Amino acid sequence: MTRRSVTLTTLLLVLFLLYSIAPAWFLLVSATKSTGDMYGTFGLWFADFHLWDNLREVLTYKDGLFLRWTWNSIVYSGVGAAGATIISVAAGYGLAKFDFRGRGALFAATIGASLLPGALLALPLYLLFSKIGLVGSVWSVLIPYFVNPFGVYLGRVYADSAVPTALLEAARIDGAGELRIFTRIGLRLMTTGAVTIFMLDFIGIWNNFFLPLFMLTGEDTFPVTLGLYAWNAQVLSARDMTSLVITGSLLSIIPLALFMFSLQKYWRSGILMGSLR
């Protein structure tokens, strides 16, 4: 590469880095300000330090409702991602290692379904769950989270890469059943892929907004995304909720950051394996 191309590439990467960091920096700076300073000072730099006051207000408002929302998000994301991972890994393994009629068409349909945006399915899912009387319950968001076509696609990719067919044939010759082969061999060899799928599902569910917006009605059942939106939407409230929304948004990032750091050794190798495939 020429010196000019290296300089241009570096400049573009720096600009992309600044563009990526700017929202988080704005969030951090704004969370340290009072409501008046938030409107009256430069948005990307600090003023009087009020972070501890803002944190106390967020955590104590309406008897700690924000903590309830955070716990709901952890439950929805953890249970939903766990269920989606099990289904995705099992389905991907089946598509990769079993030869049956219609396998290609089923895999094509899975890829096609993964291209549909989740927001497009929110209203049809609401109409479906209203028919069976589950709207407003936690199951109205958990059950749709269990189905992830993109996770099935990744499951097949990882099964093709990590599970040798010869090893499965040897286990069949030794008399092992298919369920035992999957749980004792396939699932263990696909651990990295399963963790990667779990991580992507967890983050996607945590940030999901439209499905809870359509399905949930009680404030106590809201995830943190919908709860912060509800605070922000209180335009007729006598209190300005901006500082609570900003500080709550900053707090909502912390569980995701801890989650990512705790699983980094898995998702790095998992993403690399998927890209090589």
Walkthrough of the structure:
The longest helix has 33 residues. This protein has 277 residues and is mostly helical. The protein is 77% helix and 0% strand. The protein contains 15 helices and no strands. The mean pLDDT is 89. It has 2 domains: 49 residues, no CATH class; 227 residues, MetI-like fold, CATH 1.10.3720.10.
N/C terminus separation: 27 Å
- Overall spatial form: globular
Assign the CATH class of the largest domain. Mainly Alpha
| Helix-strand pattern | HHHHHHHHHHHHHHH
Structural class: mainly alpha
Number of domains: 2
* Number of beta strands: 0
Task: Give the CATH superfamily of the largest domain.
Answer: MetI-like
Strand content: under 5%
Which fold name corresponds to the CATH topology of the largest domain? MetI-like fold
**Helicity range of the residues?**
over 70%
Count of helices? 15
Q: How big is the Rg?
A: 23 Å
Task: Point out poorly predicted stretches.
Answer: none
How confident is the prediction overall: mean pLDDT?
Answer: 89
CATH architecture of the largest domain: Orthogonal Bundle
Largest sheet: none
